[in-house]
Amino acid sequence: MHHDESTPPTDFTALAVSRALDNVADGGKPFACLIVRDGEVVVEAVNHVAQTGDPTAHAEIRAIRAAAEQGITDLGGYEVVVTAYPCPMCLGALYYAQPDRVVYAASREQEGEHYEDGNRLMTLATFYDEYAKPVEERALRAEQGSVEDPTAPFRAWSARHAD
Ligand SMILES: Nc1nc2[nH]cnc2c(=O)[nH]1
């Protein structure tokens, strides 16, 4: 495992696991996320899917949103510490937020030995594979609608932002 000596990831990883355990004790799912800068936790969040019914209320998404509410809209200079390697939704959100590094406690494989989310379209094991498939082969059915000018919004945006 590679990490900077100045910011050993193990301490915060243990904290993320501890927060996830607290969430399970509160009736929640076993996930927590910390956003760390210069050795300090600036944001923390736990999964609230069970508490709210919002299927997107994963720990990482909630942490990124809480950061934005504090004015932190780009995670450059920050580390994200999580209970388990992010799911594809949260990984996508992290690519948008652009932290310096993600540190995770459990791998997807370790998580999958003990936990399954319960979803009609995918399992923990198949979710990443979905993205590598052509659109028409994915479990989530998608069809292109017929509209005369589907690229109009993008051309309008480009015209507005051209210099
Ligand atoms: N890493 C992570 N994986 C999940 N799978 C389901 N919910 C979550 C979450 O909040 N975090």
From TrEMBL:
Region annotation (Disordered) maps to 140-163
Q: What keywords sit in the KW lines?
A: Hydrolase, Metal-binding, Zinc
One molecular function GO term is: guanine deaminase activity
Gene3D superfamilies listed in its UniProt record = Cytidine Deaminase, domain 2
| Annotated EC | 3.5.4.3
Q: Where is the CMP/dCMP-type deaminase domain?
A: 7-122
Top-level division of the source organism's lineage:
Bacteria
Q: In its UniProt record, which GO terms are filed under biological process?
A: purine nucleoside catabolic process
Concerning InterPro entries, the annotation shows: APOBEC/CMP_deaminase_Zn-bd (IPR016192), CMP_dCMP_dom (IPR002125), Cytidine_deaminase-like (IPR016193)
Task: Spell out the protein name for this chain.
Answer: Guanine deaminase
Origin species, per record, is Curtobacterium luteum
